[in-house]
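Bench notes, afternoon.
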Amino acid sequence: MDYRPTMAFEKSLSLLRLAEMAAARHQGVCLLDVMEEFAVNQRTAQRMMRGLEAAFASVVHSIDDDRRKWWKLQDATVLRWQGVRDSELAALDMSIRRARREGADLDAAALVCLRDRILATMPGPHARRAEADAAAMLEAQGYACRPGPKAQIAPMILGNIALGIKAPFALDLVYQGARDTDATPRKVEPYGLLLGVRQYLVARDTQQGGAYRRFRLDRITDARITGQSFARDPEFDLTSFAAQAFGSFHSDSEHGPVIWRFTPKAAPVARDFEFHPTQRLIDEPDGSLRVEFTASGWIEMIWHLYQWGDQVEVVAPEALKHLVKGFQRQDLEVLP
């Protein structure tokens, strides 16, 4: 059987993908980008760039301060003829559904606008065919989502918070914390959102010494933009702040080293999990797996550990070990 036509077709698709990258990225693409995207070595990447230059006359070059060469496709007119593929539209639809399911309503709205704008630029028959094929793909592949309950957030509150983060503007909140008997006014400087089953606004509480705090969105009964701008702290990193917790809840008193040991039976499954960004995996001589990380949020840890039954042992901290003692079920036959 002659596979040459198939190989040529695959190379053509790779060339089109490379052209998309060179047109879409501000600086263009370098050899490292090509090697990472297509999983090829440097020599193959160089051949691909020569093919790009031969196929598209509008490719220009530039050299950066590190003497790396960049290729930029200036005229992307021919790429617009491709329209949108059914797999791409299906991925976009799935992202919209996932965003809605996880409570990221603003992201979902933005993705819907992007989807509409893409389809509006396509010829009618092409757009209808792409939509029908995408719907069939979603039905065949199933619908990916985050199962489980979620708290309801008023769209107006979420919209004002998002605008405050983007501007940035200080916000006047009406908030009732877990230990508050009544909702009280708070003036905060918003920095970001933590999404999950529970969703939190990360903000600087200007009335409490400027500390960064998490405010549960479902406990915010009102959020108004003050119009007063503020300077963001350049040292603040939302990813690092979020990593202080196992899930979305953080407690200074609980923050510290955490050690779990999974049995040899559960070790292969546990190895596929990222329990925390700071985790360290250690293979024990008996085949068990030791997982170490630093975080807080014992209650969320307990909820997760319960799914592993008696296939996991809490080594540290002692307080967490005491909380799970006696609750490791032996009749859970399916691991997470």
